[in-house]
Structure prediction request, 285 residues.
Amino acid sequence: MMFRRSVERALAVLQALRPPGTGAGAARRPFRPWGRGGMRCFSANGTCIDPADGLSSEQKEFQRVALDFAERELSPHMREWDEKEEFPVPVLQKAGKLGFGGVYVRDDVGGSGLSRLDASVIFEALSTGCVSTSAYLSIHNMCAWMVDKFGSEGQRKKFLPSLCTMERQSSYCLTEPSAGSDAANIVTKATRHGNTYVLNGSKAFISGAGETDVYLIMCRTGEPGAGGISCFIVEKGTAGLSFGAKEKKVRHTIITKTFNTRHVEYVGHTDHTHTIIPSIGCSCE
Prediction:
């Protein structure tokens, strides 16, 4: 039932976003399984594979919504975003209205309450319009899920409604200059002092950094190894949080520069009762 309500909500919002002359009374465009270019996937023996094969009726509806959104809102602007290195916040917020900001977040805080498989269908379809924007959406969804799954009720209610609508966007901060994405070897440290933690360290290649509003920062709070890592929620504007310049990337035919990344540094105090995700990291149990 939750799945059906989410489908109906997304379809209703998509209809409201349609430009004049493209509603139910207008001539229906032919359905293109892989977007504007009519692309399809082929198997080794040369036969065409329909990307909707094996999906449930609800998943096909979500796929159709995402493909339509990709064709209307992503594909026409992808080149301009790339050339201007633009992070398309208004379009991300439109995606949030379709439920794409919290695909597998529980619905009591505004999420769509879907599964990871449903999310993969949606992100695959969105990528037909702009791979990098779809990739960022998948990261944002991961951040929202972390708060939903591991955060306190207070954190869920504070952060998730605006993350699910994409009124605010999020960034996942793990990668470091000296450790890459090897969580077991990160050195960004959080030291507890009474009711606060002092965070000290830097992150690299953080998607959306400087543009986004909420940062999930992985810090070492315990012993060496992956078990000593905790996650802190730090909001943009917090004293001590700073960003480097946009990192220069080689232009590629698939990943474009709308997927901006920056260096993130944080040196300062944070109130652990509001910012630490208690169920991540053995030192926080």
Notes: Confidence is low (pLDDT under 50) at residues 22-39, 250-259, 281-285.
